[in-house]
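Milestone M4 deliverable, item 7.
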Amino acid sequence: MDQKRLLSAIVISLAILLIFQFGVERFLPHPAPSPALTQQQAATVTSTPQGAVAAASAAGAPGTAQSAPATNGPRLAIDAPKLSGSVSLTGAVFDDIVLKDYHETTAPTSPLVQILGRRGGDKPYFAQFGWNAPAGNKLALPNDGTVWTASAATLTPATPVTLSWKNGAGLTFQLILAVDANYMFTVQQAVINGTGAPVALFPWSRVVRDYKPVEQTSSYILFDGPLGVFNNTLKQLGYGSLKTDGKAAAGGIAYSETSPGGWIGITDKYWLTALAPDQTANLTGYMVYRPANDGDGNSYQTDFITAAPLTVAPGATASLQTHLFTGAKVVRLLDAYQAQYGIPNFYKAVDFGHYLYVITKPIFFCLDWLNSKIGNFGLAILIFTVGVKLLFFPLANYSYRSMGKMKLVAPKVKAIRERLKDDTTKQQQEIMALYRTEKINPASGCLPLLVQIPVFFSLYKVIYSTIEMRQAPFYGWIHDLSAPDPTNIFNLFGLIPFDPSGLSPFLHLGALPIIMGVTMFLQQRLNPAPPDPVQARMFQFMPIIFTFMLARFPAGLVLYWTWNNLLTVCQQWLIMRRAAMPVVSRQLSVARKSE
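Output delivered:
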């Protein structure tokens, strides 16, 4: 096998995948922001008692409070099978949501994951619902200081709760709340008009995060930050882009688009808080950045507001229903919500990748199904790897047979190179003639590796990004397949109470990556040695380089690579041995005739 061609093919393939994954997407066409909002909508916030900043008021997005909201006060408790927490009745703010099924670490005594956090703390993150009035209208509307009255003390799947507030001028505002057995709230924004004249209002909803999370912001593998689907197209705007674009725009509005339905929110690696309004309503979505007096001083906000006012006739009631999802991004659950409520492309909250999606999601479903049958994602990865090897067996069979023949004719190739070392053109011609005589394809050795590169990247996406793989144990010392191997040879696998990775991340080398390096070395020994001494030395270092490189990758991915290497060694040895038999027989036959 021409090792130089193999190396070039690997580098080019990796470069192409990385360019497509992280570089090309930004240059592809995306829906442009709405060039202009209606005059009626543009003036909606100017009279709202929520104290919107002037620039935001001109654009129609829900504003921010003039003063810090009350952190203490009455609260509505939430108790559902998979989440708990409370809603602040001062301002009707969803700002306290804890997931019952997920812990911060693999330790069962570690704190439960809290998604939404109260204002005034170090991680303020909340959802809120309200109304704006048209410009010039002096209606008294609920705001951050409004204390709502709850019809019950606790919200459960069996007991919906209605929050009510009267403005003293004939209008009654209601938030009718319900929660299901998973992570979906239903919020009905209702207005009862007890006046003698029609009332026009703009219902809105928003998700606000007053800090930038640090645990995922350094990752280039998946997206986290504000996102939404408008006109059936996904729009993602990272924290950095939102801040930059927001500072340059009026009112901090970095992006806006009007569409029927859709959804908008903020995503993390494993968690999502999103708003999905009535899919028949026409709304304008916003992604906004503003400085904040809370959290870390930065406020990242996503909003929905109706593009046209909701008119409430005298003596009548009008409402707008919105679903609020705040919980774990369980793939099958997102798919179910998408089908149940008609939420377009809700599954895209899980970052399966733009171009590898057709491979990534089937791989996930395969692993998830195997795990449901055997109860261990590590074993599922091993079985999946066997399936991949079987799928590519015809290609590998052709490749390894060719490599086996190349190893046998290597002495002849070496002799040609030495005889014609001053005439490279003639040298290549004779080598290719030899390959044709022996029916060898020198490029075939690259094929098994090249076809598996997309599988490798897709599996990496699945292991790294999906909640199902989070804290999934294997056996022995591997307690989390989505995290790197926790052991380290540089502190004698924990015998020395010292973490060398604190000095340098390269000083973290676990047992599983070392095993992977050994299997890679064994596989390399079966390949024909490069005739060039420089190339040969370089390839000798490849197992060491990959060992250190993969040491910081998720253990599940290293497990896949290790098991794949072992299967490849067995497969390659058998195929090359069988391929060598006819060549050896022919050589013996020629030798006997010459005698």
